[in-house]
Design goal:
The protein is an alpha+beta fold. The protein has helices at residues 5-21, 27-34, 38-50, 68-73, 190-200, 219-227, 253-263, 282-288, and strands at residues 54-57, 63-66, 86-89, 92-104, 114-120, 131-134, 142-152, 157-167, 204-209, 212-218, 246-248, 267-272, 275-281. It folds into three domains: 5-73, Orthogonal Bundle (Arc Repressor Mutant, subunit A); 81-167, no CATH class; 173-288, CBS-domain (Roll), CATH 3.10.580. A hairpin with a 2-residue loop joins strand 12 (267-272) and strand 13 (275-281). The longest helix is centred in the N-terminal third of the chain and has 17 residues, at 5-21.
Length: 292
C-alpha cells in the first residue's frame, strides 16, 4: 500500500520518538515535532491503525507504537543493533538520529565515492555542505566521513560524498596500552615526579599503592605547582587528580576513543581484576590510527 507524504512523515516521527523513549507515543508529541495540527495527526493515526501500521495503547500513559508492518513499509530493519550507528554533523553528534542503512552508489576510489544513508530521525536536521561522521558500524567497525550533497525527505535519506573511510581496530586496549605501568606513590615529592616524567619521556603517571589506584599526576599539574611556587618536596598527593578515567583491559579500542574526545583527556588507566596494569594515551591511539 502506498502511503501519503504526511503518513510517511508521521510514521518516521513515531518510530524515531519510540526508539528515543521506549514507550507509547501520543499524537500530540508527533504533531509538535512535524508542526501539524494535532487533530490532523489524530485522524491520520486512526487511518494508520486501521491498516495495521500502528497499535493504539489505551490509558493515561498510552499512545501509539509502530508495528512491524510500519518498518517494512519504510524499508527499515526492525532489529535493534542498527539503531546504534551514530551520526555527527560538523563534529557534534545529532541526538535522536541513527543510521539504519548505508548504500554505496559508486565504486569507491580516491576521486569519487558516494553513498546514501537512510536514517531513523529527520533528515531536516542536516543541510547541504554539512560535514558528517557515521559510525562505527556494528559489524565492520567502519567510520565514514563525508559531506552532504543532497537529501531525500520522503525516504529519509542523506546523499553523501565520502572522503574518508576508516576501519577501526577491533582488538582490546590491552594490545595497545603501555605496560608495565610507570607509577608514583602518594608520598613522592614533586621533584621525583618531574624526574620520572623526564627520564621516561612521559607526560603523566598514576598514583598507585599496593595495586590500588588513588589518582593521576600530569606534567601540567607539576608545571602549575611550580608556577605557584609550591615547594618541590611537596607530596604529589596534594596536586593529583583523584577522579581517574579508567577502562577494563578487555574493552575494544574504538569504544574508548569516544571517551577521550567527550571527556577531553590525554590518557586513561587500564584495569584488570580491579588493579591498574597499564596506561593508554592519545599518542598510543595516534600510533595505531593517525587520522582519528
Amino acid at each position: 500500500m502506498d502511503l501519503s507524504l504526511i503518513q510517511k512523515d508521521i510514521l518516521i516521527t513515531l518510530i524515531t520518538l519510540y526508539h528515543q523513549h521506549s514507550h507509547p507515543i501520543k499524537g500530540e508529541e508527533i504533531a509538535e515535532v512535524i508542526k501539524r495540527n494535532p487533530g490532523t495527526v489524530r485522524n491520520q493515526m486512526q487511518a494508520l491503525k486501521a491498516i495495521g501500521f500502528v497499535d493504539g495503547i489505551p490509558g493515561p500513559k498510552g499512545g501509539y507504537n509502530p508495528t512491524a508492518q510500519a518498518y517494512r513499509a519504510l524499508n527499515l530493519d526492525i532489529s535493534g543493533n542498527e539503531y546504534d550507528v551514530k551520526i555527527a554533523r560538523n563534529g557534534e553528534e545529532v541526538q535522536g538520529v541513527k543510521v539504519v542503512e548505508i548504500a554505496f552508489t559508486t565504486l569507491c576510489h580516491p576521486d569519487i565515492c558516494r553513498a546514501n544513508a537512510t536514517l531513523i530521525g529527520s533528515v531536516k536536521a542536516f543541510g547541504i555542505g554539512d560535514q558528517i561522521t557515521i559510525g562505527p558500524t556494528p559489524v565492520n567497525k567502519l567510520l565514514i566521513r563525508g559531506e552532504v550533497y543532497g537529501k531525500d525527505e520522503v525516504s529519509q535519506t542523506l546523499l553523501i560524498s565520502i572522503f574518508e573511510m576508516i576501519s577501526l581496530p577491533k582488538k582490546p586496549i590491552r594490545y595497545y596500552m603501555s605496560s608495565p605501568l610507570i607509577s608514583l606513590c602518594r608520598a613522592d615529592p614533586l621533584k621525583n615526579a618531574l624526574h620520572l616524567f623526564n627520564s621516561h619521556h612521559i607526560r603523566g603517571a598514576p598514583v598507585v599503592e599496593k595495586d590500588e589506584l588513588f589518582g593521576i599526576v600530569t606534567m601540567s599539574d607539576v608545571a602549575n605547582a611550580i608556577e605557584k611556587n609550591v615547594p618541590m618536596d611537596t607530596p604529589v598527593s596534594t596536586i593529583m587528580t583523584p577522579d581517574v578515567v579508567f577502562a577494563p583491559s578487555s574493552v575494544q579500542l574504538f569504544e574508548v576513543i569516544r571517551s577521550f574526545k567527550e571527556r577531553d583527556i590525554g590518557r586513561l588507566i587500564v584495569m584488570e581484576e580491579g588493579r591498574p596494569v597499564g596506561i593508554l594515551t592519545q599518542s598510543d591511539i595516534i600510533k595505531v590510527f593517525p587520522s582519528l
